Amino acid sequence: MTTTRPNFGQRLADAVAARGALCVGIDPHPALIQAWGLDESPGSLERFAMTAVEALAGEVAVLKPQSAFFELYGAAGIAVLERVIVEARAAGALVILDAKRGDIGSTMTAYANAYLADTSPLAADALTVSPYLGYGSLAPAIGIAEQTGRGVFVLARTSNPEGQELQKSRDAVSRPVAQSIVDAASDTNAGAEPMGYVGVVAGATMKPGELDLSKLNGPILAPGIGAQGAMVQSLRGVFGPALPNVLPATAREVLGSGPGIDDLRSAARRTRDDLATALAV
């Protein structure tokens, strides 16, 4: 299974250097589909998703399809998701599949093979995973990602308010649980250049100082820009010295400009330019 594909951290760094630090979610939310004047049918799902790919895959560094909105349509939706992954990557974008998988043993291995193995039609460049059955339960995904030059983004401090009770609770050595996840990812990434392949999800909605990300040595997927309330201008305060490794993510702020391809591209460029100013060191 081992490939000669470069480490995901290197590939992401190269993509961001070439196209800017922006991840756009492809979230075929029913409200967005309706706003584009489409109905909730598999054909409309395909039109929505592939329009987004056509507009954005040659423009931004990363696209992040949300698996749940494709799964809603059953086999037809999964077929569209396969096409999104293949065509987005062919156009030069990296693809993070936002599936938030988390399980144990052979089941986690099956998920890892489904989304990270070279032989899978659903293989993306990276996968979001949940560590809340224990960071060690992610070993199959972390191992397969290392072997195939792909990445994982581990949920640490998410942007939803419901996550606070668990993620801010303290572990046996009095660290916030979210910090313990960051620390475990840091250990996995130790020594990687320019950064490791295990990223974390840390919402741009956090307060400054909530997490110490200084030793992560990996990418930070930062959802929450726009509709969830986080502002581009707040990123520096939230992430501090870890800012160079931050990959801000947005969906509705760009997709809401559709269905016109030129309008979608213009929205992505504006967001990317705003981020470039905010992230400039």
UniProtKB/TrEMBL annotation:
Q: Does the keyword Membrane apply?
A: no
Enzyme Commission numbers on file: 4.1.1.23
The GO molecular function terms of this record are: orotidine-5'-phosphate decarboxylase activity
Record field: catalytic activity: orotidine 5'-phosphate + H(+) = UMP + CO2
Q: Which residues form a coiled coil?
A: none
> How would you classify this enzyme at the top EC level?
lyase
Q: Name one GO biological process term.
A: 'de novo' pyrimidine nucleobase biosynthetic process
**Biological or metabolic pathway of the protein:** Pyrimidine metabolism; UMP biosynthesis via de novo pathway; UMP from orotate: step 2/2
Which InterPro entries does the record associate with it?
A: Aldolase_TIM (IPR013785), OMPdecase_AS (IPR018089), OMPdecase_type-2 (IPR011995), OMPdeCOase_dom (IPR001754), RibuloseP-bd_barrel (IPR011060)
Domain Orotidine 5'-phosphate decarboxylase, chain residue ranges per copy:
21-267
Question: Which keywords annotate this record?
Answer: Decarboxylase, Lyase, Pyrimidine biosynthesis
Q: Which family is this sequence assigned to?
A: Belongs to the OMP decarboxylase family. Type 2 subfamily.
Read off the HAMAP family from this record: OMPdecase_type2
Q: What is this protein called?
A: Orotidine 5'-phosphate decarboxylase
**Which organism's genome codes for this protein?**
Allosaccharopolyspora coralli
